[in-house]
């Protein structure tokens, strides 16, 4: 989660999901609640995600349809509310499932969000009770929105990806302040920060200066991940691969260093969660 776009938030959300499943054997669900559906485009080949969005199947829109908002008309097709147990996720790999984003989320946000802001939390509670997954990773929009708020309410933890440049770093205290204010409002959320992870790092003067500034900022009280993901041309290139999801993952980008970095970041995330739960 970050209030600045272009920091690799979606890349990390999807690839951490992949590593949790592939390297550590966890049952994982990834949910895209960004109306721009970037994670959906990263997971599926173009023809597949166009079909998913056109037919509104396997999308996060289903979470928000309930007795108060029973159906929505999209492309002359009526999309009806279903129980949580009937929401269909899409299998990406064995024990890794995905719930796609939807352009039509904005139709709910404009008129109905106040009565539906807890629906994602209710869905998380359902999944927890059913013990369907070990981890649920939510990819959020980069800007403050109803959907970001919904994710904050629903989640136990959040991770802040940051590109170590001056503009991206500016979003760090803003996001922390937003979450702090939300937690104070009617006790809507108990979310905790797992820390900040650097993405697209280059050994540049500006990047190193920003890292030092955050490192020495005691007021934030922020854990900074020891591991970071460096910028590499082959990571950007594979995201445009039109094959299956596995071919677009960092694990398979052809760089052993990049593979080691994403595994190390994921392992550090797991340790942070375990430490917090002690």
Helix/strand/pairing class, anyone? alpha/beta
CATH class: Alpha Beta
One letter per element, helices H and strands E, the order comes to HEHHEEEEHHHEHEHEHEHH
Helix percentage range: 40-55%
Mean pLDDT: 83
- If strands are numbered along the chain, what order do they take across the biggest sheet? 4-5-1-6
Oligomer status? single chain
- Contiguous helical run count: 11
Q: What is the CATH architecture assignment?
A: 3-Layer(aba) Sandwich
In CATH, the topology is named Rossmann fold
Report on this structure:
The protein has helices at about 10-20, 40-45, 45-55, 105-110, 115, 120-130, 145-155, 165-185, 205-215, 235-240, 255-275, and strands at about 30, 70-75, 75-80, 90-95, 95-100, 135-140, 155-160, 190-200, 230. Helix 1 packs across helix 11 (about 255-275) and helix 6 packs parallel to helix 7 (about 145-155). It has about 280 residues and is α/β, with parallel strands linked by helices. Strand 4 (about 90-95) and strand 5 form a beta hairpin. The two termini are about 25 Å apart. It has one domain: Rossmann fold. The relative contact order is 0.17. It has eleven helices and nine strands. The model has no long low-confidence stretch (mean pLDDT about 85). The chain has a four-stranded mixed β-sheet. A three-stranded parallel β-sheet has the order 7-8-9. A two-stranded antiparallel ribbon has the order 2-3.
